[in-house]
Amino acid sequence: MKRFISWRVPTKWPVFRLDDRLLLIISGMIVGILSGLAAFALNRSLVFCLDFLHSYRAYWWAFILPAGGAALSSLFLSRVVNEGAGHGIPEVIYAVSRYGGLIRLRSSFSRLVSSCLTIGSGGSAGPEAPVVMSGAAIGSNIARFFSFNDRQRVTLVGCGAAGAISSIFNAPIAGLVFVLEVILGEWSTVNIVPIAVASVAGTEVSRLLAGNQIAFSHHTFHISFHDILACAGLAVVTAFMSVILTRLLRHMHHASDKTKLPIWAKAAVGGCAVGLLGFFVPDVMGEGYHSIRNMIEGVYEQGMTIAVVACFAKVLATSLTLGWGGSGGIFAPSLVVGSFSGLAYHRFLVYFFPSVPWVGEGCYALLGMAGFIGGILQAPLTGIFLIVEITGGYEVILPLIIISSLSATICYYFESASFYMKDLVERGQLLRPGTDARVLSDLSISELLEKDCISVPPSMSLREFVGLITRSRRNYFPVEDPETKEFLGLVKFDDIRPYLFNSMMYDAVFVEQIMDTHVAVARYGEDLSDVLRIMDSRGLFSMPVLANKRFVGMISKATLLDQYRKELMVQTYQG
Amino acid sequence: MSRRAKGRAIRSQAKEARMETKLLHIFRNTPLGRETLLQSIYFCNITRSSMVIYIPEYTKFLMYFDNDVVQVDLDPSYLLYPETSRTHALDLTKAHGIDASFFEPRQFTASTLPDIPVDFDFMCSPRSISDLSSKISLGHIGTRVRRIIKTAQFPVLLTSPCYKEWTSILVFFGGSVNSVKAVRLGLHISRLTGLPLDLFTQVEGSQTMDDYKDRLKQAGLEADFDKRVRDWKVFADNGFEENLYHVPHQALAVLGAYGHGLVKDILFGSKMEVIQSVLSNNLLIVGPRYSAKG
Question: What is the pLDDT of residues B262-279, one digit of tens each?
Fold first, then answer.
């Protein structure tokens, strides 16, 4: 029975006697495998849905298919699993940033189902964000089950996300880099090894179940110097398109928020519009991998104008799908828009400089993808490594570095934060480990309270008060009503200095005459950053803290510095 | 009074003031919500706790605990008549001398999913987060309320359906780790309020009184116990449910819950389930993650 009871508690399992790092690596591998399976399941479900609905797309009423899918997806999220809509990745970043990676269990499947309904019916969105959300939730809940600490949990969330991206694109380095650059925002040795293992595990699951060519086939390109020069122009184009997509998506979100319709009806409106757009530009439907494959292989038949129109149409369709309540991510649409941008740019170059031996248009499509990812996610390394792994070689590394870095830099001037982080930054919720905002957010007033202050009644004479000072280590004395215990004011040591050496005043002066009744106070539950702001603006070093009008302690900058250092050490611990 | 004695008195006042506790109340602007708020107000007044009121704008919110995140899906009745809810809550609190603060969410996991902090000392909840009359009666604790109890580090005050004052505290003590925590909490509330504390023990199996006393001794509660406990009701005969009749009508019942695993719950049943389905008293429930004070 004893043995049975010990097995009932996961933290007592023999595996937990292992070294912490080894334990994290093993857990990371498990999470990577599960994320890979989630990615594979979504991939197959999408293929099934798209195949099933393919025969109906020829009908005139086919435009309502994306509407139905988006409405069902919205209903599923809001009524069945009771989750708010969203792209997924900002939620993961938020959970990592504020709550040590705590994510609800239901998130491990909810976005898979909802995005399958949205994308499978023809909505313009990507399956990556839902899979990342799912993988991250799997990692978080495994960590929760085994009672891992916050740092370990964050690492497992990263493992889940890395396993998902690696599995979808058959690109383990891109998965690893994406997580470190976008999700976690920190490169520490503690994180890198388990996340790398999870990436490999996720990739292997995909290779095992779906073969070695998952999203796009490998191609090699021979880049010349003039191609590298031309990349600067392509960077401007992709940055421009990134800004347009970011702004249009937000605009659609706001327009949708202002519309007085049920959530499912809004999603249906967006889906319907995408369906109608799809009649004229079929490339905008679904996640768009088929179009990307054609462009990379150089078999996209339409001309430059159509490519430009398709590029803008995809931006519009994605904004309509996601902005009006459909479920999915922007990663795949970004790749589509990027490749259309690259293709159109290549055709423009060929048209105006026909004598120059440009590299194939497939290469430009790939460069466009890297530029767009670098721009919209402001994550140049992710774009670079993703394309390097897709092309299977380092031939394109120079133009990739140029285009990704330039595009990210140009975008930064127009949008100071990436699409995933813009809302979080605006709400002050992006708190990367080791930053001032993060350290302060992890401290609370209750942790900083100095409780050794001695309260005094207003009727106390100066003589009694001086006697009290000799026994106190503090310079501040809160004055309380003896009946109600309410805080009345504060006596500072400096306030009584004029009377200290005049013993004649000892029985003539009382506390209520010398106390400061207009002292700035903090409330017990107040945000520490707000309290600090008041202290800075008034030049204070200490403030009394009240709860229910009663004094509970003092808060001072000295104690804050002490706790700040301790918290910073915990957050930046690399052991 | 000598100067030294006066100094001691002042210091003890300061010590008393340090024990600041906060109660979270999620307000529902309905007659049932009013009854629940009155219970919270009474609790805060008697324990000198400050009250934080949250008036929901969305039907769901998240509570991020140390190792778990709980989504609470509220009944739509929580969003009724938003234009009067703040006034109603303020009127009630002010009339009873409580300076309540209103919680405005600043953190959102999703645009319609606010995060509620969990650094409270108590949380008040109806037995079910629902406005259906069939679900607010005895014998039913909603799944979301159960989840909060299981995960929270604070005790949850489950109110009786109608406003009911309490003039004593009764702790159910069965010897488990959770029930020791409940005793500790009972003693803490007794110290805060000055109200008499009773213990209720249903002797089980081959346990003797010495066993129960030993557990309290091991927990270091012996001295405080002798000082504060008015009566220890020990029952060796009759069924537990039958003996619950001896719980005073106006007592706050403090008890532990979910202290043992699912298997034991299924095989032997849960005392908490029996108590909540029989007693109409206010219940203060201590979950497995509660870190005891006092």
Answer: 555 555 456 777 787 788
